[in-house]
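Task: complex structure prediction.
Instruction: return structure tokens for all chains below.
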Amino acid sequence: MYPFMRSSALTLAVGYVSLGFAALALFATPLWYAWRVTIQDGRTEILQADAQRLTDVFRREGAAGLTSYIDMRVGMQIPNERFLLLTDGSFKPLAGNLPAWPAGVPAQSGSYTFDVQAGGHVTSADFVYVALPGGYNLLVGRDLARYAHLEQRFWYALGSAVGILSILGALGGVLIRRALMARIHGIRQTVSAIIQGDLSRRLATNRSGDELNTLSQTINGMLVQIEQLIHGVRNVSNAIAHDLRTPLAELRSRLEELTLTKPSSEETFAELEAAVADVDRVIRLFNALLRLAEIDSGMRRSGFVALDMAEVAADAVEFYQPAAELKTCTLTMISNGAAPIRGDPVLLAQALGNLIDNALKYTPEGGHIKVEVRRGPGQSVGVSVSDTGPGIPDAEKSKAVERFYRGDASRGTPGVGLGLSLVDAVARLHGSALAFEDNHPGLRAYFMLQQDALQPIRSSDGALSLHPNDARLLHPTA
Amino acid sequence: MKILLVEDNERVTQFVIKGLKESGHTADHAGNGRDGMFLAASEPYDVIIMDRMLPGDIDGLAIIEALRKSGKRTPILILSALSDVDERIRGLRAGGDDYLTKPFAFGELLARLDALTRRAQGEGAQTKLEVGDLRVDLLTRKVTRGDRSIVLQPREFKLLEYLMRHADQVVTRTMLLENVWDYHFDPQTNVVDVHISKLRQKIDADFERPLLRTVRNAGYTMTAHD
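Output:
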């Protein structure tokens, strides 16, 4: 198991309990103070009222009257409920329940707290001392021990509160930790399985929407992306193996044949030229792959500028127009005015070029190709290229953007099978994906450009914003 | 032309030097950064071909930066296997004038060197271009061949202008894509050829002597000579 002392749940619980203690102390201190003050004041007031009453008796009935009144009071009250003492001028007790005038009573009338000897033990008491006319002295007091149990109860209550808080806190800590550990353990198990190579595993999630759940969902999203990438890489390696081996095999046999047959120099020359063309095919494939990887890494947003997609499309249409004419196809452009967007003009032109090129490849003579750029809701721009060719069967539509995918219809046509992958990568860089639908007849390929997906990413040294003069050298051409 | 090649790969060096000499240029070679730096700083060259990754402490970009700081304006073509956009930008920022990625076709290299030196010599404020009996007035945008006037679309005019500015030089398809259409990618198809053949229809078809010629395995050239 995991060391308990290092558990973050424990730290959390201890922190919360400490916080609880602090809150309790902050709450109890003023309460205690208010209680003390109120009780003390109340006690003094009661004693003063009592002393006043006795003084009134003294005024009305004289020392003898007060003496008998005190005797009566002492006789009626609960033992030591109230300390009463009346003395003459020489502090000789005349009446009351204190055996002698306590030492340490100040000479002035007033309220005091001091210890007295009563009922065989020393106790602390509040007193009101009144000097009566004729040298008589009156002491009215109250035993503080009578309140001690109240204070005690207060401290007991506070102590229990602290105890309950500690127990609940510790219990809470243990429970939270156990719940947390259970989930973390689940995550660890899943992650371990993924480390072992089982990329299909996902973290358990529920609908609670708590932090761990959100985190799990985010991690799952990441796993999906990683799995797709790895899947893509696997497919690509297979495809590369096939697509690169073919021209390399041709090249090899061509060269080997030359060394074996030693043909005339003219024939040799022709063979060598064909060999260079083979190599060029390989280089072209490599460049396309590198470019795809570059776009896919998502770091190509350095080339993002404000542009008019309608203009980019119009240029592309103009560029491909002669090729369309040559094939007796029509190539038309439709837009609803300017389509301002932030994007990479070179990549967008290439993506659109690939789509038009693709459409030209598959549309039979006399067909129609339509490029549409429409400003959509919000700040999005929709781009589509429709043709009247054979289209793609529904089952193959989703596969068409995969690297090196070549539909049955494309067998025997030139191309490396990366064109649509590149369009898809460019579309994703601009906040959407390449999709296909039927054009009845033909194929309609479309993607959206999203304004808000286009926060350009700068490299750490900030050096990647494009200078217009840089642009002409930026992009590899095979 | 006097050309300096700073390149450490022997096969590439042999290939380029031989090709340059066969094309009638003089070429010096430096196999590392130190020698390259020394030659580039001390000898007057028309153009320098600079590899980026060189043995020793000095790499190609450092040489270019040092040369530019010391005020040398010799055109430099960077020849490198580093093909990323970022690397290209870095090369240009350092002071390179053109960037060619390895592997490359010799025709492409030669054509780019020609374009670089021509640019360095300054095209001046030419307003009229002439190849044989084909004349282009850049101000009125009139094109005539012999005594016949030829009507061109704006893009065709731009294409013709670029070809005529580089008359008697080989111009590759890539150079045309970059300079006429501003397209910095490989459009996979032969669209450039289609544009050229359309242009050819207009300027050459009715005339005995073709001016716009295809150069095998390289590109096109506009010339009145045979």
